[in-house]
Amino acid sequence: MNILVWHVHGSWLTSFVQGPYTFLVPVTPDRGPDGLGRARTWQWPSSVRELSPAELREADIDLMVLQRPHELELAERWTGRRPGADVPAVYVEHNSPHETAVGTRHPLAGRTDVTLVHVTHFNRLMWDNGRAPSTVIEHGIIDPGPLWTGEEERAAVVVNEPVRRGRTTGTDLLPAFARAAPLDVFGMRTEGLAGHLGVEPDRLRSRDLPQSALHPAMARCRVYLHPIRWTSLGLSLLEAMFLGMPVVALDTTEVREAVPEGAGVVSNRLDVLRDALRGFLADPADARLTGEAARAAAQARYAEPRFRDDWERLIKEVTR
Predict the structure, then answer these.
(1) Which residues, including other chains, have CB under 8 Å from residue 268's CB and lie 6 or more apart?
(2) Do the bridges between strand 152-158 and strand 134-136 make them parallel or antiparallel, or are there none, so unpaired?
(3) Which of 128, 243, 265, 315 is most exposed, with the fewest beta carbons within 10 Å of its own?
(4) CB 131 within 8 Å of CB 291
């Protein structure tokens, strides 16, 4: 089976392309947002093939996996076939609604020919899905192994573009957290973050690392902090749990479902979260036990084989 899918969300797609199919990933000369091609920072199997728009028009395609509203038109223009009409199609919604949970209608809400796949039950509930057939396939993480050492008395945070995204990712909360624990903030465009927030550089270090170095560096930190206000369930939170890190997180979106009792501290009270950071820094034995519970919880719910099985069932259903 040949599956057309754009390279949009590298971490998610890395798990998705482990399936037993051929994946056709569009590529353009500039490798822009609509033609990134194969990943250069993740390990993808040889079953992922780059095709130009001209090659896509001649390619056999059994399923289209769409992830952005404009891909409905783009797929038809590049392949000459209409998603949902000429070729079976699903639409993966990675995000929570950007506006209100009460009045945000999904772009596919008026269609019945494309299955809408949410990555969390929270997202499915908050979007107005209209007439679109919808389902949930939760994240699947390729297990990086129990790498946690906690040797550095610091808290790891993972967020891309924290200045631009601001309150969405809880960037404004970082100075208060930095007073409780020194922070290592990993991610793209994190340089200069301490100065932007008025935090001493030793209390907030910016670390833009290649993907291959990210997990070992995170795992050297004593605890993982997830200050996200309003995004979908962050893959970085689940990856930290797989690493065996204790987690401290805002009680927003799907976090409460992902972090059970004993796997970390989840709250919307900043004093509770700050105390939890201080506690894990002061007690490495408790941090280790909590991290082991976090890893077990993540393995039980977000394992990559379960993710592939869920997708296998859906693919068979929509292409039969």
Answers:
(1) 250, 251, 252
(2) unpaired
(3) 128
(4) no
Query: 100: which residues sit within 8 A by CB, 6+ positions away?
Result: none
Q: What is the pTM of this model?
A: 0.94
Query: Residue 122 corresponds to which tokens in the numbers above?
Result: 């929270």
The strand pair at 2-5 and 22-26 is best described as: parallel
In this structure, are strands 183-186 and 89-93 parallel, antiparallel, or unpaired?
unpaired
Residue pair 27/8 in contact (Cβ under 8 Å)? The answer is no
- Distance, in Å, from the CA atom of 12 to the CA atom of 22, rounded to the nearest integer, reads 17
CB 229 within 8 A of CB 167: yes
pLDDT tens per residue across span 130-165: 999 999 999 999 999 999 999 999 999 999 999 999
CA dihedral 164, 167, 168, 171 (to 10 degrees): 70
Q: What is the pLDDT of residue 103?
A: 83
Query: How far is Cα 169 from Cα 162, in angstroms, rounded to an integer?
Result: 7
Mean per-residue pLDDT, 186-211: 94
Share of the chain above pLDDT 90, in %: 94
Task: State the CB neighbour count (10 A cutoff) for residue 267.
Answer: 15
Amino acid making up residue 205? R
Tokens of 68: 């952005």
Spatial distance between the Cα atoms of 288 and 244, rounded to a whole number of angstroms? 8
Those residues with Cβ within 8 angstroms of residue 263's Cβ, 6 or more apart along the chain or in another chain: 241, 246, 247, 290, 293, 294, 296, 297
Q: How many helices (H) does the chain have, and how many strands (E)?
A: 13, 13
**Does residue 100 have a pLDDT over 90?**
no
How far apart, in whole angstroms, are the C-alpha atoms of residue 231 and residue 59? 35
Helix 284-301 vs helix 270-282: angle between axes, to the nearest 10 degrees?
A: 110
